[in-house]
UniProtKB/TrEMBL annotation:
Pfam families cross-referenced by the UniProt entry: ubiquitin (PF00240)
Protein name: Ubiquitin-like domain-containing protein
Superkingdom of origin: Eukaryota
Gene3D superfamilies in the record: Phosphatidylinositol 3-kinase Catalytic Subunit, Chain A, domain 1 (3.10.20.90)
Domain annotation Ubiquitin-like: ranges: 30-87
């Protein structure tokens, strides 16, 4: 059995969840932000549409971008934060 590539997702209530992403390095390098959002939606269906995803200091806001562009690797930590209406967009 091969390696399972995972990320750690820190939920808005302080929960820490390991999320399985893929099985190969090639899949990991081509995985997009949208694919990550879909996996998070499966795990947190009640809040997934109301959160922003943050890695280090970067907001994962371009769904078509690969996770590798942000430097996300196996066991990286992704923080979910609630979207606040009326805030400034950068």
């Amino acid at each position: 059995m091969g390696k399972i590539y995972q990320v750690v997702v820190f939920g808005i209530k302080g929960e820490k969840v390991l999320l399985d992403l893929c099985n190969t390095q090639e899949q990991m390098e081509s995985m997009t932000v949208l694919q990550l959002r879909e996996k998070i939606n499966q795990r947190f269906p009640e809040i997934a549409s109301a959160v922003r995803l943050i890695f280090t200091t970067k907001q994962l806001d371009v769904d078509s971008e690969p996770l590798s562009k942000y430097g996300i690797q196996h066991m990286s930590g992704i923080q979910m934060v609630i979207k606040v209406p009326g805030g400034l967009t950068a």
